[in-house]
């Protein structure tokens, strides 16, 4: 397992390198530059700005400089938020996005898996139909509709919770966490149900039932673990996405996470900020996919990576 | 044993909940700032949000009162030479930085030199071009010490200008001209100091006890909340989390009036929205009649009242109402709607277009709900009144700005300008030959001559030249003025000292909470 892990981590380096190269040149191909604005600047001032940020150098030199800087974990100054470096922006925003994402993820797992399993256990009965109908509603209502509805109800009409703004306090987190978690709950419930139904029809479950094992034990000790494999597959990229913030939820609740940097960075042609968040997202995707593979092996004893390779 | 002693976590959560859900504090003003300020460096800031915060944190030689009238700031008095070229300021000896150090003329000189140094790459450095040698310093041809600013005695400062500049006093209220705090960015010359800043969330300011008029500042704290979406800002205002909003969402004016009554503050703002023809390309090059036809076919009242609906004022000229010394262009001067349409059709036919050969034009704008509504309405009016086939081109912001500037593919583009200072030349400079802001590619000897002559004249004579320049621009139909902007805020009844003004600048220094 150790050698497998090391190989996987080593293979991440060329992947990241390709990602960085692709993103670096793509954002520079986009029309318009970081300093284009409503008020066009005199050419001398544009030249000063280009010199300050090394944008007057050949692209290959800029690329080399960028690689050298990120090798030292220096993502450079933001071209739009001039008081901050990209490192500052990510270090300040990432904990916020991570906290919200993690809470939403835990809430989604805590609710999605039990109701999905329950629906599978009650397949084609009223409970199943109710859960799946609610899940469909959860998936169908986009968060830019759900968030204002929650604000209208809980912040404006009832006045129980703030309409937005950010502090590490429960009252500020409730609405954004619930908004983020709702579609995830629905996805996880549907995936769990589908996979659980398949497992419940497997021969080893029939054998357990034939031996007279109680249903509760069948469900929790034998069926749940293999039924979770598709959920785990889903969780890899989903966790990377939710932990790096949601543009919509951050804008509606005015949360200072990093989600909005993906869009604002690109719109402002903030080259360094775009690169910073793309690299962060790429690293998280690689990391979570790797973790998913490890959890697979833990959940399913038949999966042994080192043996397979041998 | 109470539940809180048994369950300390419960107590912590309950307390934090109570704190975070607390209502607006009487000593703290919560106001929206719009998007995240681009920089709190006085020389790098460009965005309106940054300039608003910087005016709370720093102060210039001259400052603004609640109505945005010019009043003494760090300079308690000043004189101007007869030719308008030499300005002498006497700095307030009581003025202190927030760390207690006196603010000296040298701090102002250091600031201006840094603003113009090529290495600083200050985007707005061109604003100081009227100062002797400023252009040469910012292009690196002269040392910063050659700049026309010098100390005069213990508290005196002398600024020499290349030529008289009527708006120079107002320029001194712009953060670019403020004294430089030095590399110690955490000291401030204004009524507040920056206490805490979370990017994307808020900027928390605390009263500066060292400020020269600290006793006159009522608020203990000001929190500027970063909120990009007007609808989100409105939700937070309605939930009681904001005292003042930066703006209001478009298109809901009737509902807003009904809902908020006197809390809704709509006021004249020095800005004009217009469409610009690219007069350097077909089909609008050398076609002033056709351009006039398109202008006359637009019903501005319908556009502002029914389509945009946020209090905008129909426009027939470039210079907005409220500009000092400027006559207001009235819709009545343009004839009745029927007369305008009849003339538009006549001009359209005279330009060689008609039902069989309709004009095919492209209207380009950047992504925005307001712009999209405007463009759709204008295209519909042109189609209905003249039969013009308009292709609407919605572009992402940077693509739009780049295309508009290069002018290689543009025909009609979305334009607009908001006053940097109260002077008509600030608007008219957009159309001078060679100006980087001239995306109409209008190049006219008569217009340029009038603008050039205005630079060397004063008072009414200068205003007259500028009026003639505007008349020339409008007679050539380089632009289609559509509406003048208005400032729009929601202000809670307990806020005192908020006075509507044409610059829409409301220093927190003048505000208080009842």
Strand content of chain A: under 5%
Using the coordinates shown, work out and report the CATH topology of the largest domain in chain B.
Dipeptide-binding Protein, domain 3
Q: How is the biggest beta sheet of chain A arranged?
A: none
Mean pLDDT of chain A: 86
Number of helices of chain A: 14
**Proportion of residues in helical segments of chain A:** over 70%
CATH class of the largest domain in chain B: Alpha Beta
Inertia-based shape of chain B: globular
Terminus-to-terminus distance of chain B: 42 Å
Number of strands of chain B: 18
What attributes characterize this protein structure?
A: 310 residues; mainly alpha; 14 helices; 75% helix; 0% strand; flat; B: 514 residues; D-Maltodextrin-Binding Protein, domain 2; Dipeptide-binding Protein, domain 1; Dipeptide-binding Protein, domain 3; four-stranded mixed sheet; disordered N terminus
Write the layout of secondary structure elements.
The complex is a heterodimer of chains A (310) and B (514).
Chain A: H1 2-29, H2 43-52, H3 59-71, H4 86-121, H5 126-140, H6 143-157, H7 170-200, H8 203-210, H9 215-227, H10 229-243, H11 247-252, H12 259-267, H13 271-299, H14 305-309
Helix pairs in contact in A: 1-13, 4-5, 4-7, 4-13, 5-7, 6-7, 7-9, 7-10, 10-13, 12-13
Chain B: H1 3-6, H2 8-20, E1 28-34, H3 48-57, E2 62-64, E3 70-72, E4 75-80, E5 86-91, H4 105-116, H5 134-138, E6 149-152, E7 156-160, H6 168-171, E8 192-198, E9 202-207, E10 221-226, H7 230-238, H8 253-260, E11 264-277, H9 288-296, H10 300-308, E12 313-314, H11 337-350, E13 360-366, H12 369-386, E14 389-395, H13 397-406, E15 412-418, H14 425-428, H15 445-455, H16 459-475, E16 479-490, E17 495-496, E18 512-513
Parallel strand pairs in B: 1-10, 13-14, 13-15
Antiparallel strand pairs in B: 2-3, 4-5, 5-7, 6-7, 8-9, 9-10, 11-15, 11-16, 12-16, 17-18
